[in-house]
Amino acid sequence: MNQMLYEIPVKTINGLEQTLATHAGKVLLVVNVASKCGLTEQYEGLENLYRQKRDQGLVILGFPANDFMQQEPGTDEEIAHFCSTHYDVQFPMFSRISVVGKEKHPLYIELTRAQPAATGEGPMRERLNGYGIKVNPPPEVQWNFEKFLVGRDGRVLNRFAPDVTVDDPRLLHALDAALANH
User: Is residue 1 scored above 60 in pLDDT?
Assistant: First the structure.
């Protein structure tokens, strides 16, 4: 069991201090999110997946980040309002953090250390490079909506590139296997 992951302090989007131990025993899908990104529509799929599988033990954790072309510039209140009014997000959302660079949150230090490579890596990187956007090299988070799958025991099981959506068979297969593992 990766106790360290559960001990990392995080702050909910409403300002409550907690750790991921609140979700111990659940399967977690940790996603760095942004409201002004070309991938923002993934909120809809994330929320649908959460509603479909939360009774099986899935918890999606949204961590807003403003690391990529300032695509999450709002305050926590503005982010919460956006998520609520545009996508009726019910899954837990957290205070905005940094997921790359010198200010990288300890959660993302641990996630990227545990899973340095992403499934589906390549197409998004090529697309961004084609637009002249410098993309972080692995193991850094590449862009908004990168997804980390954490098993019930706290182990980071997989990592998915930003453009791997929640209906992608690779993600669904890994998620269903994690949910089946009691």
Answer: no
Answer yes or no: are the C-beta atoms of 76 and 15 closer than 8 Å. yes
The tokens for 104 are 């990288």
Largest CA distance in the chain: 45
pLDDT one-digit tens code per residue, 52-72: 999 999 999 999 999 999 999
Pairing state between β 147-150 and 27-33: antiparallel
Q: Which strands sit side by side in the sheet containing 147-150, from one edge to the other?
A: 58-64, 27-33, 147-150, 156-160
Q: How far apart are CA 180 and CA 170, in angstroms?
A: 16
In terms of Cβ atoms closer than 10 Å to its own Cβ (0-12, 13-18, 19+), residue 176 is middle
Q: pTM value?
A: 0.96
Q: CA separation (Å) from 178 to 46, 53, 154? A: 17, 12, 11
- CA–CA distances in Å: residue 145 to residues 1, 18, 39, 100, 148: 26, 23, 7, 13, 10
**Residues carrying an active site annotation:** 37
Per DSSP, the chain holds a count of helices (H) and strands (E) of: 6, 6
Going along the chain from its start, the domains and CATH numbers come out as 3-180 (3.40.30.10)
Confidence class of residue 39 from pLDDT cuts 50, 70 and 90? very high
Could you identify the residue written with the tokens 């989007």?
13
